[in-house]
Amino acid sequence: MTYLLTKMIVCLCLVGILGWLLGWMFRGSRAKLMQLKSESEWQVKLASSEQGAVALKTGLEKSNHQVKQLRTDYGELVNDNKTLADEYSKLNTFADRTRKALKAEREKAIAQEKQYAKKSQLLSNELSLIKSSTVVMEADLEKHKQLEISNNSTILDLNGYLETANIKSQQSQDEAYQLGKSLNEASIAITQRDKAIEVLQPKLAERDLQIKQQAQELENFSNSHTDLLTKIEAIGNQLQNSKSTSEQQNHEAARQLDQYRQQLDQLQRREAELEKEKIERESAVSRLNSEAETSNSKLITLQQQHHESNLKLAELKRLNQQYTAEFTTANNYQKEADQLKKMLLDKDQNIKQLEEKLAADCEQRDEEKKSLRSILDSTQDQLQNQLNNNGELEQRMITIQKQYDDRERVLEQTQQRLNSAENTSTDELAELQRNNSEQQHQLAALQLDLESSNQKVTELQQANLQLSDLIEKRNISARIAEEEKLIAEQKLAEETANNDQQKSQSTAQKTGLSEGQPASFSAPRMGVADDLKRISGIGPKIEGTLNDLGVYHFDQISNFTAENVNWVNDHLSFKGRIEREGWIEQAKALTKGTATEFSNRYDKKTN
Length: 607
Prior knowledge:
Layout: H1 2-26, H2 29-179, H3 184-191, H4 194-241, H5 247-420, H6 426-511, H7 540-548, H8 554-558, H9 562-571, H10 577-581, H11 583-592, H12 597-606
């Protein structure tokens, strides 16, 4: 500042000396007028130059202050960029670690889900087998119950038969008791079932012997009777021949004859009674024998039925034990299945926690992206402000350049005037040249500052581009992670679909599907069926028919064979529609997630 003032003072002095010299040179009125005019002009020019110098000084001070401010801002921006780069590297390392950990956890979860799917499939197969075996066993138990009921009815019938046999045996015992004391043992033997025949046979033999003995006695008596008759006849002959017997002897003989006749009548009645008794005994014995034979046959049949019922009861006990064992195994399988379900639920919770953690990390990344974006926006704003400041500086430099050009023109004019003027001192010219060179040096310094500020602006723009590239890379890595997650979920869904399809095929093979019947489900997977109406040619009615046939999903239709198509056509009211409408191709596209023209139209209508 002092230097400029001294310069201005020196310039004024030089101008005054120059005017004095010019006035001394021209010496006259005209010279004075010219001198006064030139002095006034120079005073005006000096005043304008002073004003320009003051403005130039203030502009230089402002430009220096702005350059300093730009340097401080640039240092702050560099530090901010370094901190951002460090934070970004830390975030990248943390994101890589979390990505690797999530990938490992995802792989473990996928492997565990595959194992659990296999175990659940095996358990479901075993449960289906156990259910089928339990159904068969329940049918067998129902049959055995019916057999047991029939056996109980037969046992009741046999008990009735036994009661009737007991009643009949009691009646036979009563009848035998009425026959006499000799048949008491036989009646007792009949009540004892097995011993009755053995007891009756010797008794009957003894009774036959007695009857034979009585018959022999009767024959002997008849012989004696015939002898007696012969004797009576002889006596009668003797009485007739010897009429000299006394009346006492005739009376005694008549009495004896009456006695003999009475005895004969008694013997005849006794013989008739014995004959009748013999016939009755023979009929009773034959009846008892027949009843004993029938009772024996009934006892044999009852024993056989009892043996069969015992065998059936043993078989029922064995089946019951087998059923209880299978039921316990089924309960154990059910417990294992429940444990596996709990483990699956735990794994699902872990997966949900991991997904929540991943979502939190994604949110944190989004927040970091937002913060980086805000920092980037702020840096861009700062760069824009810097560029605006640089534009202002350029405008100021242009104005300074214009002022400098004006000064040069003024100096050139003064130089011309000095050259035209005589007695111009070389010292003053050298001083003016020095002033001009100093102003040129200042202008060069300002240009260097402007170039450095432009270089800083380019560096800031490069840093901005690097930050935008890093943010773009972060966005690309996040999109790659999301795509990997979607691919893993799609693979998991495909594996579960394949497992369900294999499970349905295995269950279909076990349950014995008819020829050409496709793999079907009793219910849709996860309780949610696909909207089959998105396939051209399938309406609500056909969708209901397919659901009744066990077809709920697109992948089932995409796996139809020619036999499956024929089988489904046989069950549809519109045959040949599968081939005509191209169900299989549409189902394959919908299974992959790609929409068809008809599905797009259907979605627009439904939405």
